[in-house]
């Protein structure tokens, strides 16, 4: 089972469960007191209850996935951590030294868009790049955890496109927050997929491949094994900085950034996950 959000005919956003057997099923068909926000479904007990209720259904119910319009899984996480220069090869591309600790930054929820939504290029920047990334969605409260238990606190994985106004950042590294926080600079979805559906036989994510794709052509790709700091380490490290809560997202870094211009189609392709696609437009 995967979690997602779809847009109804009246424009409202509805939490759904997605399975191969049942298609896209509104959570309101499964829970007696359903939340209106998919973020409220991430804790393990709620996820397990949904799976149990789905297991009791016979046949297929709800709208089929191919007819659903997926949106961002949710709009207002408490926090989003981004990680810069986490792929060794990407750092060398930029003539940067891989930092001795994760190069973290934060993004506001005003940056969030979903699948199919346009990425607007702000007039303040002449060089905006898209970066495909593997997103870790926190599912349970997490504070001071070790790497061995870190993925137990991850509800699932999701594709991400993280945008940067690179020309602003190039003027001064202290401008990182500004360069990362224009509206539309964070797309994620369409699904939140359990780690167990993507991980290898060893329970780890090293073989997962992440690719930045423009207009159908792979521009840069790499595997999680080439990260300087593994997903487990990133969860553990940031849980020692501050508490992580259900819905918090950790962006694990990109194998490569690609400059954007209006008319392009940017994609994040990750093995084992559905593809995230967003058209690129000039800001109105």
**Structural class of the helices, strands and pairings?**
alpha+beta
Predict the CATH topology of the largest domain.
Fumarylacetoacetate hydrolase, domain 2
CATH homologous superfamily name of the largest domain?
Fumarylacetoacetase-like, C-terminal domain
Which regions contain 5 or more consecutive residues with pLDDT less than 50? Answer: 60-65, 90-95
List how many beta strands DSSP finds: 17
Walk me through the structure.
A hairpin with a 2-residue loop joins strand 12 (209-214) and strand 13 (217-223). The protein has 284 residues and is α+β, with helices and mostly antiparallel strands. Helix content is 14%, strand content 32%. It folds into two domains: 2-67, no CATH class; 80-282, Fumarylacetoacetase-like, C-terminal domain (Fumarylacetoacetate hydrolase, domain 2), CATH 3.90.850.10. The protein is globular, with a radius of gyration of 18 Å. Residues 79-281 form the Fumarylacetoacetase-like C-terminal domain. InterPro entries: FAH, Fumarylacetoacetase-like_C, Fumarylacetoacetase_C_sf. Belongs to the FAH family. Keywords: Hydrolase, Metal-binding.
Question: How does the SSE layout of this entry go?
Answer:
Elements: E1 2-7, E2 13-19, E3 23-26, H1 44-55, E4 80-84, H2 88-93, E5 103-107, E6 112-113, E7 119-121, E8 128-138, H3 147-150, E9 154-165, H4 166-171, H5 176-179, E10 186-188, E11 191-192, E12 209-214, E13 217-223, H6 231-239, E14 249-251, E15 257-259, E16 265-270, E17 276-282
Parallel strand pairs: 4-14, 6-10, 7-17
Antiparallel strand pairs: 1-2, 1-11, 2-3, 4-5, 8-9, 8-14, 8-15, 9-10, 12-13, 12-16, 16-17
